[in-house]
Amino acid sequence: MIKPFFYDITLRDGNQSLKKPWQLSEKCTIFEKLHELNVQAIEVGFPASSHMDFEACVKLADMAWDNLVVSALARSVQSDIDSVINSIAHANIPRVHTFLTLSPFHMQYVLNKTPQYCAQRAIEAVNYAYKSIRKVNKNAQVQFSVEHFGDCLENIDFVIATLKKVVQAGACVINLPNTVERTRPATFISLVERVKNALPDDVIISLHNHNDLGMATATTVEGYFAGAVQLECCLNGLGERAGNTDFAQVAVALHNNGIDVPINLEKIYEVSMIISQMSKIKIYEKAPLVGPEALAHRSGIHQDGAIKTKDMDFGAYRPIKPTLIGRDDDEKIGFTSQSGKTAVFEIINNAGYPITIDEAVRLTPIIKAISEKKGELGVEEILQVYYKEILDVSGAFEFVFFKLISGEKFELGFKFKGEQKQVMGSGNGPLDACLDALKNAGFPRKLSFYKQYALNEDKMGSGATAMSVIHLIGKNGEEIIGRAIDQNTARANVRAIFNALNQVYK
Q1: Are residues 245 and 208 in the same domain?
Q2: Prediction pTM value
Q3: Are both 495 and 440 inside the same structural domain?
């Protein structure tokens, strides 16, 4: 298939829909970002609409790179077309984009003109645009749009007959807008196919879909597979009313379907954030691909699948790997009453604390009970349960002190069932010495595993910087996991031993 040709309309359709349209400097910034995205064509404005827009078109045409099509909009009147030529003809590949409705409804109730009048005006406008701009620039092109093409089902034969003459008059691109989305995508695409099949093969078919019913992306993607190569899209889906086809969604959808998309996909997320800031239109939480919640999972089933496939390009519950569009965050695992053990395990583990899946199973009903009352829980709230249930295990033992006496000799102070004990021990380091002291006190235990973690910050509010994890052999040969955190690494080791002992001696 022919590669899709991305024609960006952010600086025209997107800009005209803003409560506060962009100034020239802002348009220049967006133009540069479109360059980074590697778009093939940019509609830079509607120069006849205002002096400011005319000057912006001139400036942006100055900034254009050699293989960029620089387009500007004109009604089907000579003065508008002249304004386009005067503002962008100095670009390497300028394009006059003129339009007129051929929709029965619009011709009758908005223009109050006959179909014959509208057809003749469209042909004459394209002919004038082609002859005028080609005198100035031999690389110039003309595009014609059938405004409200989506409403042309009943007179499609008339539309096709007119478009054949429009092409003969000089248009090399025929744009078929779904100006107001009223029908299902399949109905619209059937009209596109009829036009595509009726016109010469070298005519580029373009789509410009609005999102009134939320189907603009679907219609645009299917339109490409029906032969519409040029895709008119807008960053962040900006545009009149519910907006235009979203640039990112179309690009990624085509990529996911095996199409070689000539766009720098890894720039999408960054540019989307910039456009949101510059337009002062927030990206809503559930926005596809770029929304804050686009990677969020709260259902236990979804969380389990997401975590098991998190390192794959296609996850169990996501369409892409986030890095494809330049997102440096990852799938978000939130905990609600709908979540399960996998979420508990992942959240605590990602926070830097070791936990086993068995411990996650034990903590889950406790955390669920809290969530049922409060809603979604933050990481700190989940860690508080971890501290209480995993680190602060109460039992027969109470650690009091541990201090170096000399060389390899240490003194250990603790209580067992309220009885104060002080005992000496020695060994190769504090851990061995503590176990020796416990053996001397009548509590022999063997160590099977030891690891210490450095904590980046104090999550318990005690200035803790180290976590020790030890495994002791239990009464029946089982492994008992003990954990503790402390500012002092030696004390963290000893506290971890007592944490394990309290699981043996309840």
Answers
A1: yes
A2: 0.84
A3: yes
Do residue 344 and residue 404 come from a single domain?
Answer: no
Shared domain for 363 and 407, answered yes or no, is no
86-131, pLDDT tens digit by residue? 999 999 999 999 999 999 999 999 999 999 999 999 999 999 999 9
The dihedral of CA 53, 58, 59, 60: what is its sign? Answer: positive
Nearest to 401 by CA among 409, 413, 411, 410: 413
How many Cα atoms within 13 Å fall on the side-chain side of residue 249? 24
Residue 198 shares a structural domain with residue 136: yes
Question: Which residue reads 């100034």 in tokens?
Answer: 23
CATH of the domain at 255: 3.20.20.70
244 and 320 in one domain?
A: no
Assess whether 254 and 381 both reside in one domain. Answer: no
Residue 284 lies in a domain: no
| Residue 175 near residue 230, CB atoms below 8 Å | yes
What is the distance between the terminal CA atoms of the chain, rounded to a whole angstrom? 71
Give the phi and the psi of residue 471 in degrees, each rounded to 5.
Answer: -120, 125
CA dist 143 to 123, 171, 192, Å? Answer: 12, 5, 16
Percentage of the residues of the chain whose pLDDT score is greater than 90: 85
Examine residue 281 and state whether it is found in any structural domain, yes or no. Answer: no
Distance from C-alpha of 501 to C-alpha of 423, rounded to nearest angstrom: 17
Match 């349209």 to its residue by tokens: 21
Instruction: For helices 341-350 and 379-386, give the axis angle rounded to 10 degrees.
Output: 100
String of DSSP letters for 143-165: EEEEETGGG-STTHHHHHHHHHH
Nearest-angstrom CA–CA distance, 295 and 291: 8
Q: Judge contact between 320 and 356, C-beta under 8 A.
A: no
Spatial distance between the Cα atoms of 123 and 337, rounded to a whole number of angstroms: 64
CB-based contact 265:255 (threshold 8 Å): yes
Domain annotation covers residue 277: no
Tell me whether residue 447 is exposed, middle or buried, using C-beta atoms within 10 angstroms of its C-beta: 0 to 12, 13 to 18, 19 or more.
Answer: middle
Rounded CA gap, 341 and 57, in Å? 57
Q: How many CA atoms lie within 13 A of 223 on its CB side?
A: 35
Give the number of other Cβ atoms within 10 Å of residue 2's Cβ. 9
